Amino acid sequence: MAQPRGLDMKTDDLHRSRRFLRNWGWALVLSVVLGASAAPKRVLVVGVTEGFRHSSIEVGMQVISQLAHDTGLFTVDIANVNPNAPEFRGPDGKPDRAKVQAANKRLLAEKMSPAALANYDLVIFNSTTGDLPIPDMQAFLDWIRSGRGFVGVHAATDTFRGHRPFHPYVQMIGGEFKYHGPQVGVEIINQDPAHAACQHLPNPWKVFDEIYILDGFERAAVHGLLTLDKHPNEKTPGDYPIAWCKTFGKGRVFYTSLGHREDVWDPNWRDGNGQRANPPEVAVAFQRHLLGGIKWALGLP
Question: Which CATH number covers residue 149?
């Protein structure tokens, strides 16, 4: 009996196709089972500041926690001291610096001791500033070198800044904040559209934010992800990096200088007048940019 048109497959081809579908089906089942059984990675998000305090830190904490919840890829533990909280106010109503510094020291002694770091796969510095009271800096850097991950956002390069020679932390992250001009709209160049932190971004990507000019940055020492080819404010030609990744020993480091403004983080954020400088799609893209960097630093596909 003749086979209907479109089904005149040879017997060998039919067997091969059935074998492929059967094997692919088992592979899919195995992938689902392994994915379901894999424990989520453990991430510590640090918002401690010894210098300038960005108002976007708390928004960033909420966004990172939501990304963890929505993806199920990692859990979040937060180490954050907000100097503007009532318990840190002095008699004049302003933050009592001594109380804040004592709280910072206690918290990081608890969360970033060598023993505590053993509980995490990745640490995120969310606009940290100043010389943080990390209990054992060498142990922290060795922890990253051993194969863990580090992600820095915006003012993470304004942390351990100003030391000469450059602080070992600056050498790890890849550069330090030098200065910035007024907030400005820029057209960011996507250097690696295939990277997890960039594959969804337009080229150029238009963002309004505070753009850092960096010191101690060596292009050859990093893998560039986002950059500007002219000064953000003066518009003179040059190399002005925005985001990069690099290895540090066996560890992985990702940094993005974006994230000063709340509306870069949150598509629903509005100021006191109900306004925002960035359209919601910029915040959505930034969240995917950051998530891609986190996944890369964790070694996740």
Answer: 3.40.50.880
User: Beta strand 184-190 with 176-180: parallel, antiparallel or unpaired?
Assistant: unpaired
As a whole number of angstroms, the distance between CA 33 and CA 282 comes to: 35
Per-residue tokens: 19: 């074998």
* Residue 25 binned pLDDT confidence (cut-offs 50, 70, 90): very low
Please write the tens of the pLDDT for every residue from 270-286: 999 999 999 999 999 99
Neighbours of 167 (CB within 10 A): 18
88 CB neighbour count, 10 Å cutoff: 18
Which residue range(s) make up the domain with 274?
Answer: 40-298
Q: In angstroms, rounded to a whole number, what is the distance separating the alpha carbons of residues 156 and 154?
A: 6
Mean pLDDT, to the nearest integer, of 181-192?
Answer: 99
Identify whether 146 is part of a domain.
yes
Collapsed DSSP state (helix, strand, coil) of residue 144: helix
What is the tally of helices (H) and strands (E) in the chain? Answer: 8, 11
For residue 5, the model assigns a pLDDT of 36
Q: What is the mean pLDDT of the chain?
A: 91
Does 153 map to a domain? Answer: yes
Domain assignment present for 4 = no
Query: Is the pLDDT score of 13 beyond 70?
Result: no
Number of CB atoms found within 10 A of residue 273's CB: 6
**Amino acid 37: pLDDT:** 52
Contact (CB, 8 A) for 227 and 188:
yes
Peptide bond into 165 cis (omega under 30): yes
Number of domains in the chain: 1
Residue 5 lies in a domain: no
